[in-house]
Write a structure and sequence with these properties.
elongated; 9 strands; alpha/beta; Rossmann fold; 232 residues; 5 helices; 2 domains; 7-stranded mixed beta sheet; Erythroid Transcription Factor GATA-1, Chain A; two-stranded antiparallel sheet
């Protein structure tokens, strides 16, 4: 059995989770199935909104289909595949999908994203063509951090767009952080870590001093010193 590739991406915010979903959406083609695993509040629906964006669908119309189980969103331009969004939370197994019109929804004409895929009891239809996504708590313990693990099917090969998804993992490699001010990736050896630069650090400190929010780390003595004069 061929081992699947694992693309591991760190997300530090809801917007980043949506962004990763969007990158995956650009890879997807009609007939693809995305099985999304994750606990309550992990960001599964936000991830699906990102997929919608990548497919050219307005993410604002995407909502969790917990009570209706299945929603379908057509492409706005009419030239892309629709997105079928399934919430399997209330299902007892994969066999219950048939009664919901699964054959019609997964006939190869749409991209299908299934939240709570673990509720299907490990019975994923068309498993070799299924892209598995796991959204997990960051083991490093960051309160808002998530690890998004994407396991594309081996049959995808080097499909167009997959390199952009891999680049997401490279940009947020282990030990890196996303600047809370600029949203840019910051390497662990940066002198202003976790901020992108001195200006971003001062903006963060200013917000804390004004009482707008608590900074992402304790205030240090050097934070209260006058910044060095700008060069150039």
């Amino acid at each position: 059995m061929t081992t699947r590739e694992r693309i591991v991406i760190r997300s530090h915010s809801e917007d980043q989770t949506v962004s990763v979903g969007e990158r995956l959406g650009r890879v997807l083609l009609a007939g693809d199935l995305v099985a999304i695993f994750g606990e309550l509040g992990a960001g599964k629906t936000r991830f699906v909104r990102g997929i919608a964006m990548g497919l050219g669908i307005d993410p604002g119309i995407v909502s969790s289909p917990t009570f209706v189980v299945m929603n379908e969103y057509p492409s706005e331009e009419g030239d892309g595949p629709p997105l079928v969004h399934v919430d399997a939370y209330r299902l007892g197994g994969a066999d219950e999908l048939e009664s919901l019109g699964w054959d019609r929804a997964h006939d190869g004409s749409a991209v299908v994203a299934v939240e709570w895929a673990e509720r299907l009891g490990g019975e994923l239809p068309d498993d070799e063509w299924t892209c598995v996504v796991r959204i997990e708590a960051d083991p490093e313990g960051e309160a808002q951090g998530r690890l998004i693990v994407v396991e594309p099917p081996v049959l995808w090969g080097d499909r167009p767009g997959i390199r952009g998804l891999r680049a997401s993992a490279e940009q947020l490699a282990p030990g890196w952080a996303t600047c809370p001010v600029t949203g840019k990736a910051v390497p662990p050896d940066s002198p202003t870590f976790p901020f992108f630069d001195e200006r971003a650090r001062l903006v963060d400190l200013s917000r804390w001093m004004s009482g707008e929010y608590v900074v992402s780390r304790d205030v240090r003595e050097e934070d209260l010193e006058d910044p060095p004069p700008a060069v150039g």
